Amino acid sequence: MGPRARAGVLWALAAVCAFAAPGWPGTARAQVSPGPLAAAHRQWDDLGSCFRCHSRTGSMSDRCLACHVEIAWYRAARRGLHARVGAQECATCHPDHAGVGFAMVKWDEGSPERFQHDRTGWTLTGKHATLSCRSCHSIANQKSEVASKIRKRDHAQSWLGLDTRCASCHADPHEGRFGDRCETCHRTERWAEINQTGFDHDKTRYPLRGKHAALACDACHDPKKAWGPKPAFATCGSCHRDAHAGTATLAAKPADCGACHDVAGFAPSTFTVERHRNTAYPLRGAHGRVDCARCHLHRAAGVPEAKLGTAGVVMHPASDRCERCHAGAHGDLLPATPVKGARTMCADCHGEESFRPSRFTVADHAKLRLPLDGAHATTDCRACHATDRAGLPPLADRARAGKAAFVFRIPELECAQCHADPHQGRFAAGKPRAWEGGCAACHTTAAFRPALVDVARHARTRFPLEGAHRAVPCAACHADLAKRPERSSLLRATPNAAATPLLFAVEKRACADCHQNPHGDQFRARRDHGTCEACHGLDAFAPAARFDHDRDSAFHLKGAHARVPCARCHQVDRDRAGNRRVAYRGIPSRCEDCHAT
Question: According to the model, what pLDDT value does residue 349 have?
């Protein structure tokens, strides 16, 4: 029979003896003992003390728990091994009366080291599973509130009194700032390895946003110091060195990093064009579209590296003059004085919206040596002012004119300096046919054609226009005008080429130079040799306004003859060449030549 079975039998015998004579309880207590008690209970190993554990009413386990209050506490708190065995009697695992050397605690697995710790409701994981039992079950770690209730005289031999809170065994490097649930952030496999899925940084005083969310924990927390003291995060400068070396100021005060940057990244800056308007240099026009680096991200001449900071940004570049940034646009050919009296000469001609087109207008040009009117007012500025203007002499070396390649004071003020002379000098100054006023005497700046020469001006030539000649188109006499010009007179349009000639070299003076003689040689014998103007005027060929029949012929018209139509006497015949003509000579003059006898 085993020790536990034998103990059970002895316990039963004791119960029989105790209750056999209910009238003599004192006598019954001293009758029979099942066996000596274990060493832990030996102070009660006498027949008079049986009922300290054995009761006529109630469960024996109740008497056990009344003494072993630490076990009662575990069962009431539903914690530990004893809470998980339910209503099982204490004697099932801890029988007594088996002798002084009997072990009251029997390990089902054979030893404490083999004990299945998950039976207690707290499974050993990670590093805990590799530790010896007494590494944790020691007096130093008995910090649970039940520790003071342990009945063992030598608490070091007790397996009770421990708490499941990490801080009951481990020092809290965070000094309680994050509570007592260490497993929220840490794992039992490795304490320094943060449980990223369990820890929510948003619940701290500094939620992680932007680039901060991607940082390793030890970038801010020192793992060598148990994640170190509380990191300072009052300002960006608590963790980040000032990349601008103190040069970043707004309204003469040091600017907080958040004024221009956010946690999404240091670049690009969040300083907008609208906010830039509050600075000493508001961004307008094209300046509002310029990349910040064009003005700020460069090593300013004479600025020590230490004053720029690691970002290499000049926070307050000089901006009092356009030339600070736009130097060399016109080289050394910029006018010596402002044209319009503006603060800077650049603003005379250019605005901030764009460098081109220029703001210098035709009205502004009217104040200069050559006012622009007519076609000149619509001509592109560079046609006259560019260093490489087509067809015209170069104005200056391109290097002197700067990257704009634009020259302000040009030498051309006369028409012939830009336009080829289609008249080939016939009307130039100093020539016999020169007209006062030069080109402007006949042409305007609106267009080369039509010319200003009218009937009145034509009278200044060797052939004044009179009579019907006034209505004759110019091209009827000046054949050059009837031709379509092959080339423009403008030198920049046809460089190194002469314009289509317009000489106006008409040498015809007599009527017969332009008009066919319908009379043949009938009047050659006359003293005037039959000139047209002897009989005809300039208004019309017929009637012959200057012919007087009584004065200029041998047959005077008198009486009824004055009313006879000319054609009754002067009929059409043919000359010796067979050409039709009106006969004026050889007409019969006797009466009988025309009248019947």
Answer: 86
Residue 61 half-sphere exposure, CB side, CA atoms within 13 Å? 14
Give the whole-angstrom CA distance, residue 201 versus residue 260.
25
Spatial distance between the Cα atoms of 265 and 268, rounded to a whole number of angstroms: 7
Q: Are 582 and 571 in contact (CB under 8 A)?
A: yes
Strands 249-250 and 253-254: antiparallel
Asked if the model's pLDDT at residue 1 lies above 50, the reply is: no
Number of Cβ within 10 Å of residue 439's Cβ equals 18
Per-residue b/e over 193-206, b at no fewer than 16 CB within 10 Å?
Answer: ebeeeeeeeeeeee
Instruction: Look up tokens 């304490």; give the residue.
Output: 191
Count of residues making up the chain: 597
How do residues 9-39 score in pLDDT, each as one tens digit?
A: 444 444 444 443 333 333 344 456 788 998 8
CA-nearest of 433, 481, 480, 438 to 458 is 433
DSSP reduced 3-state for 398:
helix
Best CA proximity match to 382, nearest among 390, 393, 374:
390
Radius of gyration for the alpha carbons in the chain, expressed in angstroms and rounded: 65
pLDDT score at 17: 41
Helix (H) or strand (E) holding 293, with range, is helix 293-296
Q: Are 458 and 384 in contact (CB under 8 A)?
A: no
Which amino acid makes up residue 588? P
Q: How far apart are CA 254 and CA 244, in angstroms?
A: 11
pTM beyond 0.90: no
What's the pLDDT score for residue 340? 62
b/e sequence 217-250, b meaning 16+ C-beta within 10 Å: beebeeeeeebeeeeeeeeeeeeeeebbbebbee
Angle at 556 between CA 555 and CA 557, to 5 degrees: 115
- In this structure, the number of other CB atoms found within 10 A of the CB of residue 289 comes to 9
Q: Look up residue 486 and give its two tokens.
A: 């092959």
Contacts for 566-575: CB closer than 8 Å, 24+ residues apart = 569/594, 575/520
In contact, 159 and 137? CB cutoff 8 Å: yes
- The Cα angle at residue 480 between residues 501 and 499, in degrees rounded to 5: 20
Q: To the nearest 5 percent, what fractions of the chain are helix, strand and coil? A: 35, 5, 65
DSSP structure class, residue 89: -
> What is the pLDDT, as a whole number, of residue 374?
94
Phi, psi of 223 (to 5 degrees): -70, -20
Report how far residue 292's alpha carbon sits from residue 284's, in angstroms, rounded to the nearest whole number.
Answer: 14
Confidence at 196, pLDDT banded by 50, 70, 90: low
DSSP assignment of 511-562, as one string? HHHHS--TTTTTTTTSTTTT-GGGT--SS-SSS-TT--HHHHSSS---GGGG
Find residue 250's DSSP bridge partners. Answer: 253
Rounded distance, CA 400 to CA 393, Å?
16
